[in-house]
Amino acid sequence: MILIGVDVGGTHTRVGAVDGAGRLLRTTRLLTPSGADGARLVALIARAFRKITEPSGESIDAVGLALPGLVDAKTGRLIRSVNLTNIEGNPIADALGVEIGLPVHLLTDIQAATWAEYGALDPRPGRFVHLRLGTGAGLCAVLNGQLEAQDPTRSTHHPLLVVDPAPTAAKCPCGLRGCLEGFVAAPALVARMSEHVGCGELRELQMHYDAGESFALAIIDLAGDALAVALENVSRTYDADVVSVGGGVIMALPSLLGRAVEAYGARLHADRSQKRSSIRAAQWGDDAGVMGAARLAARPLFDSTLVFGHT
Ligand SMILES: [Zn+2]
């Protein structure tokens, strides 16, 4: 069995082949064209698909396409997306299916990553939540082996990701106040760093932190405390056995998760009635979306009317 996963990100699009045992056989990466319309994006993905599949001549069993935003899996359309506004409403799954001659199952990037991270655990936890921090912040759960269906009408961040309930908390672009995104997403962290050392990349913040520079310690303390609140919200509400945290922010800034786990532990110490979830770093890195999209495409789940949610 060969499954193909496609993960369209704001910067890069990845395409990968996965075998029936869940092994990632090969991947390719291309730049996601800025402002691309559906036809151009489909043509680029189809070219990458052929690059991945033609040399081996293997028959392909299923294709999963993960997009950043809110999608309608039933109609194969992207409903809303911060990064891909030009293809909102476009029947992109069908268009890609016609181009490559196979049905294409549509899902969101956070769902694909969540399924990949869940599948990487042995034994698999009964109640699993994945938090993903990159240019935004999102979460999804797998409860008793079932991927969580999310509210298709919600246009804001997940309410569990509100970490500052004060009425004066900073307003998030999603419309809520005090969202985790304002503390831990890459643009927020880079903006805080740039107040001290000019523009830079997120990895540089980790270097300043490792050098003990006080501004970096303060930024990561603030972000770690905010992430700890989200971890506590998620852990308590889902009664989670395992919460994994991944995405580009965690890859570039591993100290953030350590700091957040410390703060989460301190919060639970103050309230010993709460169950303590096992907090873990994600395992799949940049390939999570490809892996999860491929493996979810092989499941009949997407014949349902489930609509998957906002990241
Ligand atoms: Zn928000």
Structure at a glance:
With 311 residues, the protein is of the alpha/beta class.
Query: How does the overall form come out from the CA principal axes?
Result: globular
Please give the share of residues in helix.
25-40%
User: Terminal Cα separation, in Å?
Assistant: 30 Å
CATH superfamily of the largest domain: ATPase, nucleotide binding domain
**Mean residue pLDDT:** 89
Largest sheet: 5 strands, mixed
CATH class of the largest domain: Alpha Beta
| Ligands, ions, cofactors | zinc ion
Q: Structural class from helices and strands?
A: alpha/beta
Order of helices and strands: EEEHEEEHEHEEEHHHHEHHEHE
Whole-number tally of structural domains: 2
Count of DSSP helices?
10
Query: C-alpha Rg, in Å?
Result: 19 Å
By CATH, the architecture of the largest domain is named: 2-Layer Sandwich
Query: Any idea of the CATH topology of the largest domain?
Result: Nucleotidyltransferase, domain 5
Please count the beta strands (DSSP E, at least 2 residues each). Answer: 13
Strand composition percent? 15-25%
Biggest sheet, spatial arrangement of strands: 3-2-1-4-7
Uncertain parts? 301-311
